[in-house]
Design goal:
With about 325 residues, the chain is α+β, with helices and mostly antiparallel strands. The protein has three domains: about 160 residues, GAF domain (Beta-Lactamase, 2-Layer Sandwich); about 55 residues, no CATH class; about 40 residues, Homeodomain-like (Arc Repressor Mutant, subunit A). Helices cover about 50% and strands about 15% of the residues. It contains 15 helices and eight strands. Strands 2-1-5-4-3 form a five-stranded antiparallel beta sheet, sandwiched between helices. The termini are far apart.
Length: about 325
């Protein structure tokens, strides 16, 4: 009880300092919990369990993502599940729709509310990995007394948001542990593992959504989840959130049709027009399919061998 009171006093005193909220994401979250959600850190509040209809609706809405993330969630559990961690997948509202945990730890996790059908939004239970990652739309680590509620200060959480193929926030992937000996270094490692897994889930969702398109990794973003989908005319069909940020893309620009070469700032060896570039590319493709056989390539293009030779000379294709 004394520890709970000390934690509550810390929350109140920190959240009242405007400078703390500016410099610390945790303090900013505490301030939201007090001033926006009107929560009190000393409350013995546990995560609520949503009703069956709401849970069923959340599961149905997340069905594709649950399927796409199953391998990553399993892999993450194999890495850390035996060390006293559980893996949580929550929807964009903070409802737990899927989880993994060792049977020996499940009694404690269930008592804490780390179970399917519970709600871990920031507005419901204050600062926590799932809710704060969704509220801030970024990966977070919430270590023990960084939680808002005194009832949750025994938890440590590493969480990353997941976005759909349109870059919209759609879920959160979380690793939580009740172990008291977890270190900052361990949490940093867990956080990286969660972020990597979330990035792979995003990539899977994106590739599935644009299955017929060419998928290109954006080199400027220095992130494997920065992907664009490109059609046969080199126009961008879609982009992940990381790619949108790196290339300054939005739904309007994508709908207008942005050439991938322009967005990626690809430079050409010569200053030529788009038609010339397209014709050169078409000739190279046909010659490649014909294994360099000019006669066969000309026949495939429906032009004479002499015409093809002239075009090859013009574009310096040998």
């Amino acid at each position: 009880m004394r520890q709970d009171l000390r934690h509550s006093d810390l929350v109140y005193s920190t959240a009242q300092k405007a400078s703390a909220a500016v410099t610390s994401p945790v303090a900013a979250s505490w301030s939201r919990c007090l001033n926006l959600y009107h929560l009190q850190p000393e409350e013995g509040r546990k995560p609520v369990q949503v009703d069956e209809a709401m849970f069923r609706e959340a599961r149905e809405r997340m069905e594709r993502l649950i399927g796409s993330s199953a391998d990553e969630v399993d892999r993450l559990y194999q890495m850390v599940g035996r060390s006293g961690c559980c893996i949580i997948l929550a929807d964009q509202h903070g409802i737990v729709v899927d989880r993994r945990g060792a049977p020996g730890d499940d009694v404690e996790f269930r008592e804490l509310g780390l179970w399917q059908q519970t709600l871990w939004s920031e507005a419901s239970v204050g600062t926590n990995g799932i809710g704060t990652a969704l509220a801030d739309e970024r990966a977070v680590v919430i270590h023990r007394d960084q939680h808002f509620m005194s009832a949750n200060i025994g938890l440590s959480c590493a969480t990353a948001p997941i976005r759909d193929h349109l870059g919209r926030l759609t879920a959160a992937l979380d690793v939580s542990t009740c172990r008291s000996d977890v270190s900052d270094m361990t949490l940093a490692i867990l956080s990286q593992a969660v972020r990597d897994a979330a990035a792979r889930v995003e990539s899977n969702l994106f590739r599935q959504a644009f299955a017929g398109a060419r998928i290109v990794v954006v080199p400027q973003a220095n992130s494997l989840s920065a992907l664009i989908a490109v059609d046969g005319d080199d126009l961008i069909l879609g982009a992940t959130k990381a790619a949108r940020v790196a290339l300054k893309l939005d739904d309007g620009l994508i709908a207008q049709g942005v050439p991938a070469a322009d967005a990626l700032r690809e430079t050409r060896g010569e200053k030529t027009g788009d038609l010339d570039d397209a014709e050169r590319a078409a000739l190279r493709r046909v010659l490649s399919r014909a294994n360099g056989n000019v006669s066969q390539a000309a026949q495939m293009l429906g032009i004479s061998r002499a015409t093809l030779h002239r075009k090859m000379k013009r574009f310096q294709l040998h």
